[in-house]
Amino acid sequence: MTHERAILRIHFHHSGNEDLYHQLLTVLDGISPRWQAQPPTAADHDITGALKYFDRHPRDLAQLIALRAAALYGTQTTIGGGNSILIAAMAADATPPGRITIIDPTPDAIAAFLSPRPVHALPGIGPATATLLTRHGLHTIGALADTPLLTLQRLLGKTTGREIADRARGHDPRPVTPGTAPASRTARHDFTHDELDPGQHRRAILALAEQLGTGLRHTHDAAGTLTLDVRYADRSHTTRTRTLPEATNHSAALTHAAHRIYDHLGLQRARVRTITLRASALRPATAAHHQLLLDASDDKARRIEQAADAARARFGPDAVFPASLAPSP
């Protein structure tokens, strides 16, 4: 029996506990060691070799992973599968929680899955790009696939246009790169309803940056990169990562960087469900270099931060927080 390339995107439904996330990743080793962590709750899993070993369909192995995650750790999973990371990720995003969707690797099956989906469901297309495409009458991925490459390149630029054209046809040669979960720290905010107010989005980001900064200072780490993931009501999402000018655990610097990433998304009336902020490329804070500024306010902010950390250590994590995060009277 021969097997096409088979990739799974697995979403673990846990509360953001990083220790549990690392334990869940060990479930994948029982099927195949070729997995790549996608913190804070997901992983890509190349099971091509495992299909021959187990002599099973990808759906069977996906069900086995779901069963083991539930039995060993009490964690529900949502799994999508296909012949590439792109198809697997999109299948997972289109799957109801706790279910499995496997897209057959035939060109007809891939086209049938992709064609009717809105352009914003294609990874790499954020709200601003989706608005540009729909303004030119390109509302679905099928319409993108049927658009001449030169037309897309005129709209999006040479490199981006070619990348979007390839993805719209389901072409994605990226490999799953095996390795351990990268050192990172994650904070997540789930809104109780579809939140359209940018002010509430920015307020949530402030709280997440404060949470990350406090945690990093507690472990004496500093972050080199910051990733913002925004998940919408239709379960699509946008992820952007930025390398920080200098590794930091300063809450104000993390907040400023996170707000800049958010502003560059250009969200307008977006129905946001979840915002996740991840600090990665961690290193010991003692190895991070802080550029000295002739700015008394920066010095004062860091002294206040130290005092706030001391108060939290003595009286609990909610002892001190920014005034803008105080509950409304």
UniProtKB/TrEMBL annotation:
It comes from the Bacteria. GO terms for molecular function: damaged DNA binding; DNA-directed DNA polymerase activity. Residues 59-126 form the UmuC domain. Residues 164-174 have a biased composition (Basic and acidic residues). The keyword Nucleus does not apply. Residues 164-195 are annotated as: Disordered. Keywords: DNA damage. GO terms for biological process: DNA repair. Belongs to the DNA polymerase type-Y family. This is UmuC domain-containing protein.
